[in-house]
Amino acid sequence: MLDELGDWRKTHYTKDITPELVDREIILGGWVRNYRNLGGLKFISLQDKYGERQITLKRGVVSDDVFDNTKFGYQYCIMVRGIVKAFNEAPGGIEIIPSEIKLLNKTPDKLPIDMTGETVSELDLRLNHRALDLRSLKNQAIVEIRGELLRAIRKFLFKRDFTEITTPKIIGSATEGGTELFPIIYFEKEAFLTQSAQLYKEQLSGVYEKVFEISDCFRAEKSRTKRHLCEIFTLDVEMAFVTMKDVLELLEELVYNAIKDIRENKMGALKYLEMENKTVVPEVSFPRYKYEEIIELINNKNGFNLEFGEDIPTEAYRRLGDELSGYYYITHWPMSIKPFYIMASKNPKYSESFDLQKGMLELTSGGTRVHNKEQLMKALEEKGLNPLSFKSHLTAYDYGMPPHAGLGLGIDRWVSIICGLDDIREAVMYPRTPDRLTP
Amino acid sequence: MLDELGDWRKTHYTKDITPELVDREIILGGWVRNYRNLGGLKFISLQDKYGERQITLKRGVVSDDVFDNTKFGYQYCIMVRGIVKAFNEAPGGIEIIPSEIKLLNKTPDKLPIDMTGETVSELDLRLNHRALDLRSLKNQAIVEIRGELLRAIRKFLFKRDFTEITTPKIIGSATEGGTELFPIIYFEKEAFLTQSAQLYKEQLSGVYEKVFEISDCFRAEKSRTKRHLCEIFTLDVEMAFVTMKDVLELLEELVYNAIKDIRENKMGALKYLEMENKTVVPEVSFPRYKYEEIIELINNKNGFNLEFGEDIPTEAYRRLGDELSGYYYITHWPMSIKPFYIMASKNPKYSESFDLQKGMLELTSGGTRVHNKEQLMKALEEKGLNPLSFKSHLTAYDYGMPPHAGLGLGIDRWVSIICGLDDIREAVMYPRTPDRLTP
Fold first, then answer.
1. Does B319 reside within a domain?
2. pLDDT tens by residue, A274-306
3. How distant is the Cα of B424 from the closest Cα of chain A, in angstroms?
4. Does some domain include residue B310?
């Protein structure tokens, strides 16, 4: 029989139970992370959003009713009314002596995944039971860091006069010529899920000058790697009246400040993930390599034979990551492998574009954009795209589009890097891959 | 011939040009909002992200080159290097005497919509040229308020220990039994765009206790009213270990604080929209009416003949708005018209549910949820839904789901209310309706 919530309300989170509260009555709520029954003595470790506290049931100290009738089970949802006591041998030096315990919801005798922290279940199994799995201390740490990262990004950009934009996820035509778009049936019309906020953020740089969006993008890529998702969370930034050079400087500062904030506010989570010595505030400015230098580095040291104009294959990035482990830029990519909206350098073989790398992983792409309509139409044609499909977008270039530059950054990938995760699916609450649509 | 950006960078925004800068050289960038040519004297009103400043070209004072060769046109994108001068007759008491002007991008002689503020073009035409239209002072004011609202909501919820969640937009099955879902082709499988974060936020209340999300939801509703969009921006909130009563209190405080922040930080924008006397900080707590009282009020005063169990038709809401113009709650809706996840009251004819109204408009729906798995399965069956389609969601209820309650709030509609907009499409940068997929 389950108890009703009734008029009980939590008075504190576990983290708020400090020595000043000794001898005070409190109400905690959460889940049974662990329990032990030593005959005349029973312990419950109650876990909530912020941590855990020990509930101690000693025969004779608590009522017989509480001692005999309290049900135990992993992840049972309970509330505890009790008195805070100092007790050196309890974790954190504090225990709760309960006067009453409510059992709000139960679990089966055997949980599908281990929640005590003793063993780690396989990721796919964990994802199948994600609402349970997310209660693990590792996942709590990841989510704390992800949250802090998003807060840090917003804080940084608002301070620098950025406007947060919200652009549509449903788009009318296959922009960027993508074959990696999910089609939607939009009433009787064909439409697609947006692949990036690229064109909209460019338009809006002509209104708000400095804009950003943090939102979902969708990629119908069938790649089943540990680095790709079909639904990704992306930071998009665009700035008017600047070039790539300014974006490189902004991004360095953003990375610097975000990691500084995470270290300042979430060191406990970093430590739990054993990343406190790896996720360190990077020195700015970041090393800058031209694409040709990187190609040379790969070819010389690693026995590759890459030619100008080739994209860098994963295996080469892996070797590159052995040489360059920190944050670094690769700039001046060949124009031939960049999208139509990227500006050419003075030597049109090169483009005013960059990637921000962290070791082997690409975290960001960006560059100076074309802001002249005729140039943009020419670029579309050169890429084999039909300017007619971009009619509505091109219209924006008739009305005083400023010079602009920007970047796109994969939040999930950055969370993976900061948290030292092996698989990007761990960075997301409910990941979407070609094989995973639930939960 | 257009100028290159080169090494010019803006030194200030228009808002930063204060009397302390008199006699200093500055660089501004933006768009020509208006211009006048009085022979020996020319004025340009340069508009940027934050406002406008007068650029004064007087023959003999500026160089002949600047005076004779500066091109004029509405919404031309320009940068101006010049000296700040005090001049009482200029707007804000300041004018800029230019030493050099760059023309970065031009516009056609005739713009498709009026940008001087003299006339207001029809909304559909404005939406067709949205990147231009958003530069209007009215739209600047709306976007400022929308931005402040989002900041205020996050600030409020973070202070109260909420975790910001990010839930998937692509879902595997037609939850909530909706006929209003957009189908997607997800590789070879059928999938849908999410209609709300409802089920995910409920699951996550069992992990983070207090959660919120601000994100896109998708409704394939063919209604062509001024109050509906197909892609909506929604605030979802869910709290564990509480009931509807606590949610009502939280939401009152949220509304109170958000409007307080907007009035404190964006009074200029409110005044521009002539809403400074209408969008006032509401008194809490809000009036609370039971559904049955509202039905009675409508029937008595307005000649309707609504019966218990009926949804309230738009026309009745309109009349209701004449009686009750502020924020108020309608609680205890008939169980029969509420979704399966809503908890019944002690008398199961009623539900533990509420709407928050502002006048005639429904802004929020919420309530206490069912947290017991058997009850939830029974509720699904009673609503004619197949528990098998909810298999993955129901699993979460096996693992200690806490009692929980929450709300969903339409951000776009709230922006409309705060800004006094007649049409919800004005509250969104790029609205999506059954007829509009571009820009």
1. no
2. 999 999 999 999 999 999 999 999 998 877 999
3. 15
4. no
Record the tokens describing residue A398, joined without a space.
Answer: 């008739």
Q: What is the CATH number of the domain that holds A69?
A: 2.40.50.140
Residue of A nearest to B80 (CA): A241
Given a contact cutoff of 8 angstroms between Cβ atoms, the answer to whether A210 and A160 are in contact is: yes
Split into its structural domains, chain A has a count of 2
Of A5, A397, A398, the CB nearest to B243: A5
| pTM (predicted TM-score) | 0.97
Both B63 and B174 in one domain: the answer is no
Inter-chain touch A183–B183, beta carbons under 8 Å: no
Q: Mean pLDDT in chain B?
A: 95
Q: How far is the C-alpha of B345 from the C-alpha of B290, rounded, in Å?
A: 12
Final residue of a domain: which of B105, B123, B149?
Answer: B105
For position B357, which CATH number holds? 3.30.930.10
Cβ-defined contact of A49 to B209 (cutoff 8 Å): yes
pLDDT in tens, chain A (439 residues): 899 999 999 999 999 999 999 999 999 999 999 999 999 999 999 999 999 999 999 999 999 999 999 988 999 999 999 999 999 999 999 999 999 999 999 999 999 999 988 888 899 999 999 999 999 999 999 999 999 999 999 999 999 999 999 999 999 877 665 678 999 999 989 899 999 999 999 999 999 999 999 999 999 988 888 989 999 999 999 999 999 999 999 999 999 999 999 999 999 999 999 999 999 999 999 999 999 999 999 998 877 999 999 999 999 999 999 999 999 999 999 999 999 999 999 999 999 999 999 999 999 999 999 999 999 999 999 999 989 889 999 999 999 999 999 999 999 999 999 999 999 999 999 999 999 999 9
Do A68 and A170 belong to one domain?
no
Residues of A in contact with B161 (CB under 8 A): 13, 49
Domain boundary among A58, A85, A105: A105
Residues of chain A contacting B200 with CB distance shorter than 8 Å: 429-430
Cβ–Cβ below 8 Å for A131 and B204: yes
Task: Check whether residue B80 and residue B152 sit in a common domain.
Answer: no
- Beta carbons of B241 and A9 less than 8 Å apart: yes
Chain A environment of B398 (Cβ under 8 Å): 107-108
User: Are B19 and B89 found together in one domain?
Assistant: yes
Q: Do B140 and B54 fall within a single domain?
A: no
Identify the DSSP state of B277. T
CB B403 to CB A210 under 8 A?
no
Across the interface, of A2, A75, A216, the residue whose CB is closest to B372 is: A2
Say what the pLDDT of residue B223 is.
82
DSSP state of B62: B
Give domain status of residue B85, yes or no.
yes
A278 contacts: CB under 8 Å, gap ≥ 6: A420
C-alpha B66/C-alpha B238 separation (Å) is 60
Instruction: Specify whether A186 is located in the same domain as A85.
Output: no
Contact B28/B15 with Cβ under 8 angstroms? no
Residues from chain B contacting residue A231 (CB–CB below 8 Å): 168-170
Domain that holds residue B98: 14-105
